[in-house]
Amino acid sequence: MAAVIELRHVDKAFGSHVVYQNMSLTIEEGETLTVIGGSGQGKSVCLKLMIGLLLADEGDVLFRGQEVSGLGHEGLRDLRRKVAMVFQGGALFDSMNIRENVGYALTEHTKMSDDEITRRAWECLGMVGLGQDRSILERMPSSLSGGMRKRVAIARSIALQPEVILYDEPTTGLDPSNIRRIGAMIRKLQGELGVTSIVVTHDMPTAFSVSNRIAMLYDRNFPYVGTPDSFKQSEVPEVRNFVQGRIADGA
Fold it and tell me: If pLDDT is split at 50, 70 and 90, which confidence band does 247 have?
């Protein structure tokens, strides 16, 4: 299977805090790969490296064989049309209604008319289970529940029909029913749109339910990469202790 994103021998540090050291990871076309690991170890840093929000100190970050650090301004704009990121808090614009939020990238990157943007926004909201009441288009983010805001953020991420979606802690702060709903949505979008997905999460049930493969961040690298079943059955102490601890904690 072809690689969409590759990180090769990456070093990344913030001052004296070393996040990655000789780290390598490959994401394959059409898969959902979930990144797990302890808090504060740098899971989200991995996503930001993939779209050039952060640059590696050493090593290579490649998107379809192109070095991300060498893309330049226009190249990065094009990359971020192809690779959408759902930020941890949703990052909706409080001053914009839901139609404007979902259609923001279409306004910025296309020549679509207002009517076309509205139709596309409504279509995307339908894909994430918010297509029952058209009045949602005029509502403000502050009027929505946490779970609905997460789904609007996902709707915004698919508006430009990306090839890859990066999810940064998509279930944080949600109740169990909304956690299951978001997990089902990630699977649905992978199946219906054929997107490649990278999910950063601390929630093991979500990791097990959405992933083709799981990569565990440990000691500044990803030494453990495998299928959900291989993680469930692993006898490697670091993997077993992390997985069992998370499940026991209900995380």
Answer: low
